[in-house]
Amino acid sequence: MPISNGYMPGLIFYSNQIVMIEIEKLRKADIFSGTAILCLGSYSIYEAFQMPMKDSYAGVQNVWYVSPALFPLLIGSILAFLGILLIRTAIKEVGMAGLKSVLNYLSSPDFADFLKQPVTIRFYGIVLNLFVFVFILIPHIDFFLAAIIFLLVFFFMFYCGSDEGIVGLIYQIIIGGVILSVFTASGLAEKIDTFAFFSADILVIFFTVWLIFHYYIVAKNGALIPKFKLSLLIGFIAPFTIGIIFKYFLLVPMPHEGLVVSLLDAIWYAEIWS
Amino acid sequence: MVFIDRIQTFFGIAGGMLTDPVSIAVLFGSVLLGILFGAMPGLTSTLGVALLTALTYSMDTPMAMICLLSIYVGGTYGGSYASILINIPGTAAAAATAMDGYPLAVKGEGGRAIGLTTTASAIGTIVSMLFVVSISPLISNFALEFTSFEFFLLAFFGILISGTLTAPDLVIKGWIAGFLGLFLACIGRDQLQFYPRFTFGISELESGIEVVPVLIGAFGIPQIIDVLRSRTTMPKAKKLQRIIPEIGTVLRNIPAIIRSALIGVGIGAVPGIGEDIAGWVSYGTAKNTSKHPETFGTGELKGVIASETANNACVGGAMIPLLNLGIPGSPPAAMLLGALMLHGVTPGPMMSFEHPTFILEVAAILLLASMAMWITGMILAKQVVKVLNIPTPLFMPIIGVLCIIGSYSLGLNIFNLYLMLPVGIICYFLTNMGYPIAPLVIGVILGPMADENLRRALMVSQGSFTPVFTRPVSLILFIIIVLTILSQFGWYKRMVEKVKTKIFNNPTVR
């Protein structure tokens, strides 16, 4: 049952041959996404059966049509059905041979090559930087410092850096992230903060300075100094502009307020203005 | 009398806004920001509305609406700049514009094309505003007759139709996306018995998932990953000459503008269908009805006018189901719904009682925003074009910071970020595998409404589904849903074909 509406905005300008190749790839991927949808639907059904159906909950005797399980059961069943339908459609189009070729591909050197392709490495770099920013930097580091390092890493990756440089940056982010996680999770940061202020922030400042210095040398060797300077300028101006608007004009407290926010508070609320 | 009262109120509201310098500043500022957002490839009006939602949190509701609707109108129009001048659509809504817009720019008529699209977009928005004012009371009154069954079926229909029409690949994937959204909406304590569902013992999930951070993640993160990952370098923009359009050309194209506006309003009013489809349908209609279809694609002004009028008319069209039924007509309208909920306004049939002048306020904002867009477009087009020279690797990370601080600021909860990022990455993969995001978002928004109304309806009917078949609106919605589903099956299409052949080829029938 191939159900296609034939509307393909992304592929509309390409030749028929490319569309066919894309569609074949999509069908192969559909087998996996369909399986994931089937699993999610089955999980929803399983969880729904754990919810009160006809028995009493919080002193209320249930009937099936008021049960909190009704909607998850309905959605789970539809998702499972659609997952099966998607797998069936995909297998019908690419056949079992298509499925086999995907499995063979996953264990072939071609797949290993794909994982090392520049476009894939760029993806790792983007996702890693986003994850480190959200899960490590924002909860523990002053927002301004976190945003500066987040922006600089992206600029060094995609504006004044090359694909080869991304791998190096990925290692640096991983090492920096691990050190910071250990430093904050072990309680070391708190202990140091009893006699020195904002130790985690200072650690990140050191890392940022080192990163800037490192990329200054890279940019100098690659004749990219104008791009490097612009990256640095925007990397500092943007977080301060955004942060100040949110913190002082919209009165949104920053996720973590540390060294920079304390300095800004001291300036913003200084008595000389009043 | 009621009609005259409404006109008086409408002009009173519009006049009030025009005489308030703050409102005017916000109006022009937001329209300009919207145009800049739309013009930069990779940024969309949806993302603009999403990010502005966080900034408008502390504003009062009318001011927030001025801000958000203006950025929506400006963003939808702004996409035409990149389409015409560099052949890369600034937004998906302006994709059809590139077909004839760029050839016009190559011929040295880029300024003329932008002048005409600005005028056509403004007229499109005004026509759609007229529909918002005139049709809303009718729909609102009609919707007052709706019971829980109708609302459940309406939500279901919204998800199905959105999945059907926005799926770039298989329709089934559009439906899956919609039901994934409904699944996400199940997370948290249910609204009738407060039983925790899919919370995994995480206390932050007990109140359900926050809609706006999920929407920011779903629209923002895939865009950031996609633009940075592809490392696209933008071609140099073509030069602009005279922008102010010739009145004669505008007048000659009035019928085409009106037709495209009607298409835009119609498509916008269908739940979950965005401006991009309106643009393509209108372009296709203009080409098919033209005496010289062969000129389309080579720099035909009618093609540019058709797509740009329709995508802007879609803005007003999308407001009709949003305001009267609580069902967003397009992805940016879904964001607007989230913003309205944050401001304590719940769109739906009760809107005319709870906020009697709200729809007129929206219509007045649409009128003023279209005028502000025209003025800004005419005066600042040459300056706006300069944003096309900003390298994407410089502004996309800043959008990332805005997405993150915006998601956090709504509720001041870091958990919003822990939700936003994974949702964004999942949406990135889904997009790459041909799943549309609009139905997912519509599902997240309509999920609570569908769940609550299904159970409430069954409670009233003591577990019976009979009212679906005895209530006319329910029955009509049910039949439409069944036909929408069946129309995707090959055997059904063949059957319909056979029946048609039998009827029309049967001599006894004739």
Task: Describe this protein's structure.
The complex is a heterodimer of chains A (274) and B (510). Chain A is an all-alpha fold. Chain A has 2 domains: 16-112; 118-273, no CATH class. In chain A, 75% of the residues lie in helices and 1% in strands. In chain A, a hairpin with a 2-residue loop joins strand 1 and strand 2. The longest helix of chain A has 37 residues, at 70-106. With 510 residues, chain B is mainly alpha-helical. Chain B has 2 domains: 15-470, no CATH class; 473-510. Helix content of chain B is 73%, strand content 1%. Chain B has 22 helices and 2 strands. In chain B, helix 2 runs antiparallel to helix 3, helix 2 (21-39) packs across helix 16 and helix 4 (61-86) packs antiparallel against helix 14. Chain B starts with a helix and ends in a 5-residue tail after the last helix. The model of chain B has no long low-confidence stretch (mean pLDDT 86).
Q: How do you describe this structure in short?
A:
By secondary structure, chain A is an all-alpha fold. Chain A has 10 helices and 2 strands.
